Amino acid sequence: MKIGLIRCMQTEEMCPATRCLDAMRRKKAAFAGASGDLELVGVTTCGGCPGKKAGLRAAMMLRRGAEAIALASCITKGTPIDYACPFAARLAQVVRAAVGEDVPIFDYTHAPAKKKASPAAAPGCCGPRLEA
Ligand code: SF4
Known about the structure:
CATH topology: Rossmann fold
Helix content: 25-40%
Oligomer: single chain
Bound molecules: iron/sulfur cluster
CATH architecture: 3-Layer(aba) Sandwich
CATH class: Alpha Beta
Radius of gyration: 17 Å
Number of helices: 4
Order of helices and strands: EHEHEHHE
Number of domains: 1
Number of strands: 4
């Protein structure tokens, strides 16, 4: 299956899509159970807030050979900064309208990373900060 990946434009400066590509390559997370080999045909962004270009870009992916669209976890899961797109639901509707009902859409790519405990919460530390 050939896949076009759409990601959040706000996060492209802080994430090179490594985990998205790894999930796709190894058929993990959203791609677990996908049939056949997965081939990435392109990566683009939503076009910026509020995501009005996402449909156009999804359609562009289909013209470039994509058979499915993946919405990256930065859009729907908030990776890598725990801040999902506030327009994610509408953005997904726009993409669906642009590609039609028969094109599979992966609604995320990978699971969010497990959060590390903050130093203040770590055992043996001085505990939560008290307000003055
Ligand atoms: S519309 Fe959503 S996915 Fe696109 S740049 Fe803005 S926050 Fe990111």
